[in-house]
């Protein structure tokens, strides 16, 4: 197989609790990752020149520091001599929104090259490598809607109703580093069991701070919550409203003020990339 085209799905954090700060500066979390039926798309073409060539529909992120390139370079030392690849990223997920686009792109790259270069690494090994690229990479390698702890790498699959979500991204770019380093961030939410968390009222510990730092995020939430239960995903700026049917989500999208970008997605319990990899074998 010389060419492989795969999805890199987006995600939502249906809740996000920060339970403490670790000695290494990272934070311990409890969160629920919901996989979505939409995202970026990547195409991989094998070469024999030993080069990693990367291009993207968004030229602003077409550089060697992109997580796609870093993921490919992470695996290349394990590949056959002169193994190279040409990668094209069709960027569709809004950046800086907390939807996991870059992490998902990296995970799909790890999964694709593990198969194309016949590395035979296990899912657990790929998750471990992915964690060196970013805390959200393992869940996309895992490929299932999941309850997560640690920095987000300790994963338990969860089966949820496949609801529809209206996801809205205001015209602001939230810095994840700024949020997690801020003195006012909530860091002391009590640790709960997965069962108790799934049965409790869901919240995002970053939301209060981000709404204060980025008033437009607060404006979107105030607008959305008139139509359905709404929260911020990750550290933002994207926020989402949950609907039980697609029509209701699309009717609300049609009312969205022109200054905000929005789209409707379905929550799924398994990432499309896992299915695509199975079909490509």
TrEMBL record:
InterPro entries cross-referenced by the UniProt entry: GHMP_kinase_C_dom, GHMP_kinase_C_sf, GHMP_kinase_N_dom, IspE, Ribosomal_Su5_D2-typ_SF, Ribsml_uS5_D2-typ_fold_subgr
Q: Which reaction does it catalyse?
A: 4-CDP-2-C-methyl-D-erythritol + ATP = 4-CDP-2-C-methyl-D-erythritol 2-phosphate + ADP + H(+)
Q: Which residues bind ATP?
A: 94-104
> Where does the source fall among the domains of life?
Bacteria
Q: Where is the GHMP kinase C-terminal domain?
A: 194-261
GHMP kinase N-terminal domain sequence ranges: 66-144
Q: Name one GO biological process term.
A: terpenoid biosynthetic process
**Entry's EC annotation:** 2.7.1.148
GO molecular function terms here? 4-(cytidine 5'-diphospho)-2-C-methyl-D-erythritol kinase activity; ATP binding
**Which keywords, in A-to-Z order, does the entry hold?**
ATP-binding, Isoprene biosynthesis, Kinase, Nucleotide-binding, Transferase
Note whether Transferase occurs among the keywords: yes
Q: In which pathway does it act?
A: Isoprenoid biosynthesis; isopentenyl diphosphate biosynthesis via DXP pathway; isopentenyl diphosphate from 1-deoxy-D-xylulose 5-phosphate: step 3/6
The annotated active site, in chain numbering, is 11, 136
Family stated for the protein in its record: Belongs to the GHMP kinase family. IspE subfamily.
What does this chain do?
A: Catalyzes the phosphorylation of the position 2 hydroxy group of 4-diphosphocytidyl-2C-methyl-D-erythritol.
Give the protein's recorded name. Answer: 4-diphosphocytidyl-2-C-methyl-D-erythritol kinase
């Amino acid at each position: 197989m010389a060419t492989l085209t795969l999805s890199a799905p987006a995600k939502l954090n249906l809740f996000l609790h920060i339970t403490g700060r670790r000695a290494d500066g990272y934070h311990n979390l409890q969160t629920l990752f919901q996989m979505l039926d939409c995202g970026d798309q990547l195409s991989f073409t094998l070469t024999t020149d030993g080069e990693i060539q990367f291009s993207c529909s968004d030229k602003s992120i077409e550089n060697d520091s992109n997580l796609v390139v870093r993921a490919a370079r992470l695996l290349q030392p394990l590949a056959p001599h002169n193994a190279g690849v040409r990668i094209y990223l069709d960027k569709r997920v809004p950046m800086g929104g907390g939807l996991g686009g870059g992490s998902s792109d990296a995970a799909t790259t790890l999964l694709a090259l593990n198969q194309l270069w016949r590395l035979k690494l296990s899912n657990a090994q790929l998750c471990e490598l992915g964690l060196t690229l970013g805390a959200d990479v393992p869940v996309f390698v895992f490929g299932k809607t999941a309850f997560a702890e640690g920095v987000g790498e300790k994963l338990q699959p969860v089966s949820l109703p496949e609801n529809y979500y209206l996801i809205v991204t205001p015209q602001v770019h939230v810095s994840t580093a700024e949020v997690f380093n801020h003195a006012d961030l909530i860091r002391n939410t009590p640790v709960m069991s997965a069962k108790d968390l799934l049965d409790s009222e869901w919240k995002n510990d970053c939301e209060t701070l981000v709404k204060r730092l980025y008033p437009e995020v607060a404006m979107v939430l105030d607008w959305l919550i008139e139509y359905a239960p709404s929260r911020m995903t990750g550290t933002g700026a994207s926020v989402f409203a949950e609907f039980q049917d697609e029509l209701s989500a699309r009717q609300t999208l049609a009312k969205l003020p022109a200054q905000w970008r929005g789209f409707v997605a379905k929550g799924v319990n398994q990432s499309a990339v896992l299915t695509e990899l199975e079909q490509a074998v």
